[in-house]
Specification:
This protein is α/β, with parallel strands linked by helices and 138 residues long. The protein has one domain: 2,3-Dihydroxybiphenyl 1,2-Dioxygenase, domain 1, CATH 3.10.180. The chain is 25% helix and 35% strand. It is built from five helices and eight strands. It has helices at 9-14, 33-42, 72-75, 87-96, 99-102, and strands spanning 27-29, 46-51, 54-59, 62-67, 79-83, 107-114, 117-123, 129-135. The strands form two sheets. The protein has a four-stranded mixed sheet with strand order 1-4-3-2, with helices on one face. Strand 2 and strand 3 (54-59) form a beta hairpin. The longest helix is centred in the N-terminal third of the chain and has 10 residues, at 33-42. This is Catechol 2,3-dioxygenase.
C-alpha cells in the first residue's frame, strides 16, 4: 500500500524523490545492432554487453541501453539530448572522426545557436537523432 497520498500536489512533486533515483536510462533501438554497437564505441561510449541483443553504453555516470530491435516509426522519432561542458571541442573531435564516411547513414550537423543555448546534431546509423548542447547561463 502506498504510504503517501497522491491527491496532494506537494506529495506528487516529492513522491519519486523519496526513492532517491540514481539514473534514467532510455532504451534505444538499432536497425543493425552490430553496426550501432561499433558506432557508439567509436564515438566514445563504454559498452557493457548485457546479452546477445542488449548493451549498456555509458559515459561517466550516464548511459542508455541499445537493443537489437527496430521499429521504423519509433527509431525515426527518437531523440536524445546530452548536455556537455565543451560543445565546441566535442563537435571538432566528432568532425575529425569522419563519421559520415565511416558510417553510411550517419549525419553530423554543425552547431546552431538557439534561444535557450547552442547544440549540434548527430544521426546514428539507425536514424536516432542526438542533440549535444549547452544551455545559456542564467
Amino acid at each position: 500500500m502506498c504510504s503517501i497520498s497522491l491527491e496532494d500536489n506537494t506529495n506528487k512533486t516529492n513522491f519519486i524523490m523519496k526513492y532517491h533515483p540514481l539514473s534514467i536510462r532510455p532504451f534505444l533501438g538499432a536497425e543493425d545492432f552490430e553496426l550501432s554497437r561499433n558506432f557508439y564505441r567509436y564515438i566514445g561510449f563504454q559498452e557493457v554487453l548485457l546479452g546477445a541483443h542488449l548493451s549498456l553504453f555509458k559515459v561517466g555516470e550516464f548511459g542508455f541501453y541499445l537493443q537489437h530491435a527496430y521499429v521504423k516509426d519509433w527509431i525515426e522519432n527518437t531523440m536524445v539530448f546530452m548536455e556537455v561542458e565543451n560543445l565546441d571541442q566535442l563537435f571538432e573531435d566528432y568532425s575529425l572522426l569522419d563519421l559520415q564516411k565511416k558510417y553510411k547513414k550517419v549525419r553530423l550537423i554543425p552547431i546552431r545557436t538557439q534561444p535557450w543555448g547552442r547544440a549540434f546534431f548527430l544521426h546514428d546509423p539507425s536514424g536516432i537523432l542526438w542533440h549535444f548542447g549547452v544551455f545559456n547561463k542564467q
